[in-house]
Design goal:
Layout (H helix, E strand, L loop, with lengths): L1 E4 L11 E2 L3 E4 L2 E3 L4 E2 L10 E7 L1 H11 L10 H16 L3 H16 L18 H20 L6 H7 L4 H12 L3 H18 L5 H7 L5 H12 L3 H8 L20
Antiparallel strand pairs: 1-6, 2-5, 3-4, 3-6
Helix pairs in contact: 2-3, 2-7, 4-6
Protein name: AraC family transcriptional regulator
Pfam families: HTH_18 (PF12833)
Keywords: DNA-binding, Transcription, Transcription regulation
């Protein structure tokens, strides 16, 4: 397992390259020979954790982990646990504990159902394959538009950007992803806050303003709802020694209210 910083500063995709090992990076599992093309919607790099697997390890657990699918679901609790593990590794923990915790995270991530669609009532319901593909593409376009606009667009504007009506987009996004657009947008903002905290930011009021929350109390409410923790608690969890903090200059535009 290693932590790195991607210096890619382009919004368009790179020319294809090819994976050389079994790797899990940013909730994407790749095999040797897989084609890779990278892009950052906001035009800047990111910090990532990458885990490489020995072939014999995969041979022993391939059926259990279901590694035929490459894109894996990443919920907020797993994301926070991963960040806390990285922070603990920065502070210094023994290798046994790191490996044990990492396996626990991988089990949670790699055994989560992924080829399914959520119904309006929260139940998982099957759909015609062509409809499912169309809905996923619409949801993907909405994700890209939200990232490109840095959360600053309203629902009507977002729907216009992806060629849909607000009602249809809202309904399809929930069916395709299992969450509302509002919940997804909040997750984007909370993860941006987590990244800043992990990079050494400490002023919660500044972070709330930077990421479009009405005030620090609004950030607190959303983070408590998303993670079940207060921002001050999360800040302590992700704190790293001063000498290991990453100083990152992020270019962010104005963000809209929830």
């Amino acid at each position: 397992m290693f932590e790195g910083r991607c210096g890619l500063d382009r919004t368009g995709f790179t020319p294809p390259s090819y994976e050389s090992t079994h790797r899990l990076s940013a909730a994407v599992f790749t095999h040797p020979g897989d084609e890779l093309r990278l892009a950052h919607p906001l035009g800047c790099g990111d910090t990532f954790t990458s885990v490489e697997f020995a072939p014999q390890m995969l041979a022993a657990r391939d059926g259990e982990w279901g590694l035929s699918a490459h894109r894996l679901p990443l919920d907020d609790d797993v994301d926070l646990s991963h960040r806390a593990l990285v922070a603990a590794s920065r502070r210094g923990v023994d290798a046994f504990a790191v490996v044990e915790q990492m396996h626990g995270l991988l089990d949670r991530l790699l055994t989560a159902p992924e080829s399914r669609t959520a119904g309006v009532d929260g139940a998982w319901t099957p759909r015609h394959p062509a409809t499912l593909v169309a809905h996923r593409r619409l949801a993907d376009r909405a994700r890209e538009a939200l990232a490109a606009a840095q959360y600053s667009v309203g629902l009507d504007e977002l729907a216009a950007l992806v060629g849909s009506s607000p009602h249809h987009l809202s309904r399809v996004f929930r069916h395709a992803t299992g969450e509302t657009l509002t919940a997804y947008r909040n997750r984007l903002r909370i993860r941006a806050v987590l990244a800043d905290l992990q990079d050494g930011a400490t002023n919660l009021r500044t972070l709330a303003a930077r990421h479009g929350f009405a005030d620090q109390a609004h950030l607190t409410r959303v983070m408590r709802r998303q993670l079940g923790r207060l921002p001050s608690e999360v800040r302590r969890m992700l704190a790293a020694p001063a000498e290991s903090r990453i100083n990152v200059q992020r270019g962010r535009g104005p963000a809209g209210a929830a």
